Amino acid sequence: MKEIGLEAIKAEFEKRFNSQPLLIKGCGRINIIGEHTDYNDGYVMPASIDKGIYFAISENGTTESHFYAANLGESYSFFIDDIKPCDLQWANYLMGIMDQLQKQNILLEGIDLVFGGDLPVGSGMSSSAALECGFALGLCSLFNLDMSRQELAQLAQKSSHEFLGIPCGIMDQFASLLGLKGQVIKLDCRSLNYEYIPIDLKDYDLLLVNSNISHDHVNGAYRDRVEECRKGVTILQQYNKDILSLRDVKMAMLDEHQAELGALIYKRCAYVVKETQRLKEAGNCLVGGQLERLGELLFETHDGLSKEYEVSCPELDFLVDFARNYEGVLGARLMGGGFGGCTINLIHQNIKKEFSKAITKAYYKERGIDTSIYEVEIADGTRVI
Ligand code: GLA
């Protein structure tokens, strides 16, 4: 993917629409730990990053909208009283936001939009949330809508559910909109209470290694996992009606009902329950500076995602195993929904260069694919520029 900067997006807008746009940056996110816990009402620990999508946007006084995706060179136009899903997924993420606003009786007018950036699609850094949240904030500013960032995150999540048919949790949208420079968000996905934890990794850094793989069944498998967790909850509720989600379940309870749950559902639920425990410990490690233990927890999460939750793939397992055997890497795991995208690595600053070279070479030898390596900068989230 070619990377596009703010100036180029603005210039493209002026060329196409001959007017001055509002400029927005929609941000991607990383997640330290707490994967597939958000839709189980658990906790997550994401942060917004400097990589993102720039938007040049303006209302056009008509009932027709014109979108241009600069990275892809694709455009899409539609009338705002005829918003429905189309073949272009990026356009659906945008139209879904307009659809939600219309459902709240917020009358819009036609929008001219050019967008593009440096956030690779399918990388596990949530380009979809950057797209939804940047656009939502843009519309909010253009039409002076009185909505908080939290409300916008909820609106974007609902749009994913209803317009895209993806039953995602709230982590990505929340992190994109509420992230702050140098801070990790510890978010309770049930109450939406959250706290910021300043990130201090001493001599260590976070490095992302992109497998540059994106398997087709990502969304289907995601839906299956959501459904499998629900099945587990339905079974356990027969014994304790206070259980509303896997958040409320302990390992002892899973073990007690293992036979009834069956091997598959037991495995899925066990992953989520253990991941919740890991996240609590990881939060303390981050605060107390116990980075070695934090690293171990990352490896444990990867093993759970790979063997119990089964959302990894050979490429990601290879990258994590390589990191596991590399002196100076404290921890690594797949990040995001799985089946491709990036691994997140907790790595000593001194070895970043040599590690990047070595893993790129080894990965190419093993799978015939190049990696892309990104240094992470935890930056303020989605904002008007
Ligand atoms: C995707 C979803 C999130 C979350 C992660 C897995 O990124 O959009 O809501 O479930 O997968 O942690």
Description:
By secondary structure, the chain is an alpha+beta fold. It has a domain of 194 residues: Ribosomal Protein S5, domain 2 (2-Layer Sandwich). The protein has eleven helices and 13 strands. Strand 4 and strand 5 form a beta hairpin. The chain binds alpha-D-galactopyranose. The site of alpha-D-galactopyranose has 11 residues, from helix 5.
In brief:
With 385 residues, the chain is α+β, with helices and mostly antiparallel strands. The chain has a domain at 6-199: Ribosomal Protein S5, domain 2, CATH 3.30.230.10.
SSE layout:
Layout: H1 6-17, E1 22-31, E2 43-44, E3 46-59, E4 64-69, E5 74-79, H2 89-103, E6 111-117, H3 127-142, H4 149-164, H5 171-178, E7 183-188, E8 194-198, E9 204-214, H6 218-237, H7 251-256, H8 258-288, H9 291-308, H10 314-324, E10 329-334, E11 340-348, H11 352-367, E12 372-375, E13 383-384
Helix pairs in contact: 2-3, 2-4, 3-4, 3-5, 4-5, 6-8, 8-9, 10-11
Bound molecules: alpha-D-galactopyranose.
CATH architecture of the domain at 6-199, by name, is: 2-Layer Sandwich
Radius of gyration based on Cα positions: 21 Å
User: Quaternary status of these chains?
Assistant: single chain
Say how many strands there are: 13
Query: Which small molecules are bound?
Result: alpha-D-galactopyranose
Tell me, rounded to a whole number, the average pLDDT: 96
User: What does the overall shape look like?
Assistant: globular
Element string (H = helix, E = strand): HEEEEEHEHHHEEEHHHHHEEHEE
Structural class by sheet pairing and helices: alpha+beta
